[in-house]
Amino acid sequence: MRLHAFTLSLIVTLIACSAPAPSAEPAPAPPSSTAAEAPPAPSPKVSAEMAGRVSPVPAFMGLGEHFNIRIQSVGDMRHDVELTWAMGQKSAQGVLMYRGAPGVPHRGPIALDGTLDTAEGAKPIRVEIVTGPCTDEADRPHPQRVTVTLEGETTLHGCGDLAVY
Questions:
Q1: Which of 52, 55, 96, 141 counts the most CB atoms within 10 A of its CB?
Q2: How many domains does the chain have?
Q3: Does residue 157 lie in a domain region?
């Protein structure tokens, strides 16, 4: 019996010695559950500070009978444009501006106006993009229709793909 008492006493002592010593510092406070400390969730919409500075046309590629057009937003409602037309015999670059109200749902065409630097000199250009089904000459579907009006040229009509934010 003495052996059992001694063994039990030894086990209790060893367990007590192996336990971590209590800390003199207070335990850290549990994390707060207030929403103010949580980072904001990403928003799929344009933020208030970007309204009025973001064009609804981040990028656009269009094509039609004997023409193609590429538009790329460069900021502050400005866009670089490249147009090739007349069966590839004419090509020019220029700048377009979006002057509509950004952030407002577009029920009509998105209009971009600017200047194209052609071989004959600078010419006014207007590009209108309308959301609606369109099928190109190769029977491929596109979500937008495009109309390009360039001074001194026949109005161009085709299909395209508008990138979205």
A1: 96
A2: 1
A3: yes
124: helix, strand or coil: strand
- In order along its 165 residues, the chain shows pLDDT tens digits of 444 444 445 444 444 555 555 555 555 555 444 444 443 333 334 455 555 567 889 999 999 999 999 999 998 899 999 999 999 999 999 999 997 755 555 567 899 999 999 999 999 999 999 999 999 999 999 999 999 999 999 999 999 999 876
Number of DSSP helices (H) and strands (E) in the chain, helices first: 1, 8
The answer to whether residue 116 sits within a structural domain is: yes
- pTM equals 0.67
**Which residue range(s) make up the domain with 110?**
59-162
